Amino acid sequence: MTETLPPCPECNSAFVYEADSLLICPECGHEFAPGAAAEGDVVRDAVGNLLADGDTVTLIKDLKLKGSSTTIKVGTKVRGIRLVAGDHDIDCKLPGVGAIGLKSQFVKKVTD
Fold first, then answer.
1. What is the distance between the alpha carbons of residues 35 and 54, in angstroms, rounded to a whole number?
2. Are residues 105 and 66 in the same domain?
3. Dihedral of the CA atoms 104, 90, 81, 30 (nearest 10)?
4. 72 near 66, Cβ under 8 Å?
5. Parallel, antiparallel or unpaired: strands 71-72 and 63-64
6. From its phi and psi, is residue 106 left (phi > 0), alpha (psi between -120 and 50) or beta?
7. In this structure, are residues 51 and 76 in contact, taking their beta carbons and an 8 Å threshold?
8. How many domains does the chain divide into?
9. Side-by-side strand order, sheet with 90-94
């Protein structure tokens, strides 16, 4: 019975190998614990800060909403985000707009 190793969480390479208690990706050099890959994906903002449910973020670029003529301006503060799986990894509500999905690459975490 062969054990299937999880893909690299950084580059999704399937060529991961075991070394002692770590898994190592030969393509990008990322080292990680076997349990860390099974916990799920981590979501980071545009500058690399780790995001969590309930965080407050600001937009770093003007975003045009699909299907409408509305544009959400840079600097708009979004409170109480919820992380979800998928292409748009942040669900949130904006006053005057409603519920929308955002990509984490267009937001920056607000630190108080």
1. 25
2. yes
3. -50
4. no
5. antiparallel
6. alpha
7. no
8. 2
9. 82-83, 90-94, 98-102
Q: Is residue 50 one of the residues assigned to a domain? A: no
Residue 105 shares a structural domain with residue 70: yes
pLDDT in tens, the chain (112 residues): 456 888 887 888 888 888 887 888 899 888 877 654 344 568 889 998 999 999 999 999 999 998 888 999 999 999 999 988 878 889 999 988 899 999 999 999 998 6
| Pair 91, 84: CB distance under 8 Å | yes
Domain assignment present for residue 46? The answer is no
Dihedral over Cα of 72, 77, 79, 81: its sign: positive
Q: How far apart are CA 24 and CA 95, in angstroms?
A: 45
Could you list the residue range(s) of the whole structural domain that residue 26 is in?
Answer: 1-39
CA atoms within 13 A on the CB side of 44: 6
**Tokens encoding 29:** 């050099």
Cα angle 108, 83, 71 (rounded to 5 degrees) comes to 55
